[in-house]
Design brief:
single chain, 78% helix, mainly alpha, disordered C terminus, globular, ABC transporter involved in vitamin B12 uptake, BtuC
């Protein structure tokens, strides 16, 4: 019984985010002109997966009590790079995909090296590197264009058996191959420990530096995965500063909505995925209910403020309890 309660408390935020998503998406589908159809689900899934991948990347860093403001730029850089090299024969396409993912991994490694070994503040370091990464994207694609392997793009953005979106299946497979092993690994536990109490984790012998470095590398990798999927959705590349900024900020919003603490050490990438799906569905709801576009940023800001406030209540209570035992 105690084990069940412990597991429930551990995953309560993720379960809550999943329930909220189901309710909101049900409202969206019920009010959509096409109803709850396979095409509606596919379109929503394809848009949600893009933000979900970037949000998962942000989760790795936030768990260590950091933040990465370059993920939107890495996302766009991967999109532009994919429009150059993910072309041609199946072998060339495969090598191009590997190249895009290695580029994202390298960007994350640079961020991690600056923060951990260069001892720069994460915000300062990632703002600077984000500008560099976006500059590289702009050099690759000063104008929108390029090409992508159409057969692979159609396969990843279409529907599988039973109308299940292939993009969602791909996201689940990626999470099983990457997040689950990370969460159960020594470095994964060290990342959580570093976010909870870095000094204590270091004094206990946890590999804090390696865990944080890996977190930044994984953030870059997942942002590159998102950019790769964007290239598959659009069949081209575009160095859009608007998209870079939007996905960076929205990834932070998705992390918060999904129950990941911005103070580090608490939350799950699965919750961040549901947070991303919630955020995208709220955007779609505003269009379905024909809310004036001028009011949409205000409404989304209020939603984010509410999510941050609710996420801080638990920490506020804990701090108050600790103060009761103070001198």
């Amino acid at each position: 019984m105690r084990d069940w309660r412990y597991r429930f408390d551990q995953h309560k935020a993720t379960l809550s985010a999943a329930l909220v998503f189901v309710v909101i998406f049900g409202i969206y589908a019920a009010n959509h002109p096409a109803g709850f159809s396979a095409n509606v689900v596919q379109t929503a899934a394809n848009k949600g997966v893009l933000l979900a991948l970037v949000a998962v990347g942000q989760t790795f860093v936030v768990l260590t009590a950091g933040i990465d403001l370059s993920l939107g730029a890495i996302f766009i850089l991967a999109d532009c790079l994919a429009s150059w090299i993910v072309i041609g024969s199946p072998l060339m396409t495969g090598l191009g995909i590997v190249g895009v993912l290695l580029a994202g991994l390298a960007c994350g490694a640079v961020n991690g090296a600056l923060v951990i070994y260069g001892r720069l503040q994460p915000i300062v370091a990632t703002i600077a590197t984000g500008a560099i990464y976006f500059g590289l994207a702009l050099a690759l694609r000063p104008n929108p264009g390029g090409d992508i392997n159409g057969d692979l793009a159609d396969a990843l953005t279409g529907q599988g058996p039973g109308g299940v979106p292939v993009s969602v299946v791909a996201l689940v497979v990626i999470m099983l191959l990457v997040w689950v092993p990370f969460r159960r690994s020594v470095l994964g536990r060290a990342a959580y420990a570093a976010g909870s109490a870095e000094v204590s984790a270091y004094m206990s012998g946890a590999p804090v530096a390696r865990a944080k470095f890996l977190a930044y590398c994984m953030a870059g990798l997942f942002a590159a995965l998102g950019g790769l999927m964007l290239a598959f959705f659009t069949y081209s590349g575009e160095a859009s500063s608007t998209n870079a900024a939007t996905y960076t900020l929205n990834s932070i919003a998705a992390v918060v909505i999904g129950g990941v603490s911005l103070f580090g050490g608490s939350g799950s990438a699965v919750g961040a995925i549901f947070g991303a799906l919630i955020f995208r569905t709220i955007n779609d709801l505003l269009f379905v209910f024909d809310l004036d576009p001028l009011w949409q940023p205000l409404f989304l800001g209020l939603v984010l403020l509410l999510a941050v406030s609710l996420g801080s209540l638990r920490l506020l209570r804990v701090r108050n309890r600790l103060e009761l035992f103070g001198p």
